């Protein structure tokens, strides 16, 4: 696995961490809750799936550039920056949606015990999401500065 793949995996883990932390100790849903998510949950799930698809496309584009042996480091840097610039608004939009969703969930009576955790995640999570493109840039710069691997 190359360094970019490791960076992408780390970024996706970072994206998921606040969501998992906020609901980690949630009680098991009843059969009725499992069968029918709330409209808010269904809407956010759809947004999350669309965001994940965007993130996967971005990762594939980045990997294609980074693995192109015909490109020099400066060209790879310019092309990966352009890719990240193109996807950055998607990260920002999803970060806003994520924060709003967690705040909405925090206000539900059934989440009263988790309200503080949900609100903390709503404050921290969006900033973490917005920082992912810059973290990927740093990982790419490190990969481009590193000496080539010897097989």
Give me the secondary-structure topology.
Elements (H helix, E strand, L loop, with lengths): L2 H21 L7 H5 L3 H28 L6 H34 L8 H31 L6
Order of helices and strands: HHHHH
Query: Could you tell me the radius of gyration in angstroms?
Result: 18 Å
This entry's quaternary arrangement is single chain
- Give the overall pLDDT as a whole number: 83
Distance separating the two termini: 13 Å
List low-confidence stretches.
3-7, 20-25
The coarse silhouette is elongated
What's the quick description here?
By secondary structure, the protein is mainly α.
Brief descriptors of the model:
151 residues; mainly alpha; 5 helices
Report on this structure:
This protein has helices at 3-23, 31-35, 39-66, 73-106, 115-145. It contains 5 helices and no strands. It has 151 residues and is mainly alpha-helical. The longest helix is centred in the middle third of the chain and has 34 residues, at 73-106. Helix content is 79%, strand content 0%.
């Amino acid at each position: 696995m190359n360094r970019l793949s490791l960076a992408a995996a780390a970024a996706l883990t970072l994206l998921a961490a606040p969501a998992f932390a906020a609901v980690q100790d949630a009680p098991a849903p009843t059969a009725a809750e499992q069968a029918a998510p709330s409209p808010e949950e269904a809407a956010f799930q759809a947004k999350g799936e669309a965001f994940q698809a965007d993130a996967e496309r971005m990762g594939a584009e980045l990997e294609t550039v980074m693995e192109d042996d015909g490109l020099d480091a400066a060209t790879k840097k310019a092309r990966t920056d352009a890719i990240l610039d193109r996807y950055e608004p998607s990260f920002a939009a999803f970060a806003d949606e994520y924060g709003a969703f967690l705040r909405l969930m925090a206000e539900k009576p059934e989440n009263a015990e988790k309200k503080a955790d949900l609100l903390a995640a709503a404050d921290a999570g969006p900033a973490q999401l917005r920082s992912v493109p810059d973290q990927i840039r740093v990982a790419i710069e490190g990969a481009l500065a590193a000496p080539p691997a010897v097989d």
